[in-house]
Amino acid sequence: MGQSGSSSSGLSVVQPLASAFASTPRKLSSQPMSPQSVDPFASYLRQPDANSASTDAVAVVNPSTQLSFTLMHNATTPMSVLTVTNKSNCHIVFRVQPALYASRYIMDTPQGVLGPGRSAAVAIRLAPAACDQLLMNGTLDADDFIVEVVLLVAPPAPALVAELRTVDLWPQVPAQYRHVPHRVAARFSTWTPNANDL
Fold first, then answer.
1. For residue 71, how far is the Cα from the chain centroid?
2. pLDDT in the model for residue 35
3. What is the DSSP string of 75-118?
4. Which terminus of the chain has a smaller tally of CB atoms within 10 A, N or C?
5. How confident is the model at residue 156 (pLDDT cuts 50, 70, 90)?
6. Distance CA 184, CA 88 (A)
7. Which of 187, 179, 192, 172 shows the shortest CA–CA distance to 20?
8. Interior CA angle at 146 toward 142 and 147, to 5°?
9. 143: helix, coil or strand?
10. C-alpha of 176 from chain center
11. What does each C-alpha distance from 196 to 19, 68, 73 come to in angstroms?
């Protein structure tokens, strides 16, 4: 991911770091760190305090409870949009991920960096195989979308912003930096219009 540095304007920025979150990241040890060990995440991630332990304290997720996918017969693939807005005073890294069936969806930019007050819209479409199953059965097994965030200690450098759109950092982030995730239920249905609907 990155480490803190100084820009020409005097502002602290997080620079790319070719270890923890590089495109071929090293696997971090699962063993507890000794007192002599240095936490490699402490220089660029901020731990949530008691008042911001949940994702909801840092970000607004819309819709907040349910995302609907309605497939019309002889129509295009259904798509829904999930919006994440940063309501904190820090830059955040966010990720939107299905809880159970990742292969069911095609997602555009499901993770990235947001400055204070900024929003990102994540477009989510059903994959062709999921559409076929939905048409056959009329519904799909229940699923949720999990929205996760972590706080950055300083505004990230542009190279890091680009990196965090593709690198999956979440398996490496220790629990003390994670906010309690926000869950949005996915709802699936089909609809065949009749003459009165046209």
1. 25
2. 54
3. SPPPEEEEEEEE-SSS-EEEEEEESS-GGGEEEE--EEEE-TT-
4. C
5. confident
6. 21
7. 172
8. 150
9. strand
10. 18
11. 60, 23, 16
- Bridge partners of 107, per DSSP, are 124
CA dihedral of 151, 155, 161, 164, whole degrees rounded to 10: -20
The model's pTM: 0.76
Share above pLDDT 90 across residues of the chain, in percent, rounded to a whole number: 44
Tally of CB atoms within 10 A around 177: 16
Distances (CA, A) of 29 to 40, 45, 64, 174: 12, 18, 35, 11
pLDDT digits (tens, 9 = 90+) for 42-69: 888 888 887 778 999 999 999 999 999 9
* CB 59, CB 147: distance < 8 Å: yes
Question: Virtual CA dihedral for 145, 24, 163, 60, nearest 10 degrees?
Answer: 20
Q: What is the CATH number of domain 2-22+39-191?
A: 2.60.40.10
Q: Could you give the CA distance from residue 57 to residue 160 in angstroms, rounded to a whole number?
A: 24
How many residues are present in the chain?
Answer: 198
More confident residue, 173 or 98: 98
Domain ranges, ordered by start, for the chain:
2-22+39-191
